[in-house]
Write a structure and sequence with these properties.
Blueprint: H1 3-46, H2 48-67, H3 72-84, H4 92-99, H5 106-112, H6 115-123, H7 133-138, H8 160-175, H9 186-195, H10 203-210, H11 212-222, H12 253-269
Helix pairs in contact: 1-2, 1-12, 2-3, 2-8, 2-11, 3-8, 8-9
The structure holds fe (ii) ion.
Length: about 270
């Protein structure tokens, strides 16, 4: 065998190995994405109101992420943190507290404050695939001024994903009635966020959120779900119709469809 032929065979072997490794990595990534999809299904099945809340938070978070010009990778990370930020509230110890219609006692507030850590624990097995997810969930109740929880992080110590989700989460909590709070108007929410600029929220991100262009997009995205709620309703009766939930472009949908039936299956279903 000539040395030229041997070199060519080695190159072909290396190329084949690279293609196989890439295909295998794609399969593993699709598996991780499917695990996230299942987790989201579990949130919907356990608590549809929270499922709708996290989708709205994801929609608003993505509008902020796009306005900031984040990379596709960071954008996907923001979306994942938004969709799973409250997964810790599914914990059995917190479910009754978060679903009772009464105002919270100090002890109940202390218990609810554990949900960022509980949520980070839930997604910890996926840290190999989504290394930023647990930190983002853990930090979504931190405050820019350092008075948040659970770690009292300050400023840019807080992951940017969590700083973005915190804005969207607050906006949604104010504008949609949840548990024991009546919904308030969008201008009310804008006033609260403006007042908390540099206190609860990253001032630069708050400015992005409060900009007319972003407010226009947020209002358009939330329009179907911003209908007035006439009365308080009890737990498990608060799930809005699916049609009221903004459509969020899940990054992993195509991958999951491909895993189910190959690329053709993804095209057929689109
Ligand atoms: Fe939360």
């Amino acid at each position: 065998m000539t040395s030229r032929l041997r070199t060519a065979m080695l190159a072909a072997g290396a190329g084949l190995y690279y293609l196989k490794a890439r295909r295998e990595r794609g399969r593993v990534e699709r598996l991780a994405a499917a695990a996230l999809e299942s987790l989201l299904n579990a949130i919907d099945a356990n608590d549809p109101a929270t499922g709708a809340h996290v989708r709205r938070v994801a929609a608003v978070s993505l509008i902020i992420a796009d306005a900031c010009g984040l990379s596709e990778r960071e954008r996907s990370s923001v979306e994942r943190v938004a969709l799973f930020h409250d997964i810790g509230k599914m914990h059995e110890a917190l479910f009754d507290i978060t679903h009772d219609g009464h105002a919270l006692s100090a002890e109940e507030r202390r218990q609810i404050a554990t949900h960022p850590q509980l949520g980070a624990n839930v997604v910890a097995p996926l840290s190999l695939f989504y290394p930023d997810l647990g930190d983002g969930i853990l930090a979504h109740h931190e405050r820019w001024d350092g008075t948040g929880y659970p770690r009292g992080l300050r400023g840019t110590e807080i992951p940017r994903t969590a700083r973005i989700v915190a804005l969207a989460d607050t906006f949604d909590a104010i504008t949609h009635h949840r548990r024991y709070d009546m919904a308030r108007s969008t201008p009310d929410a804008v006033d609260v966020i403006a007042a908390e600029r540099g206190r609860q929220f990253d001032p630069d991100l708050a400015d992005v959120f409060l900009s007319p262009a972003v407010q226009h997009l947020v209002h358009a995205a939330m329009q179907p779900s911003l209908l007035p709620e006439p009365t308080l309703v009890s737990k498990r009766q608060q799930a809005p119709a699916q049609a009221d939930v903004p459509d969020v472009a899940f990054r992993w949908h195509v991958a999951v469809q491909e895993a189910a039936g190959g690329p053709d299956a993804a095209q057929r279903s689109s």
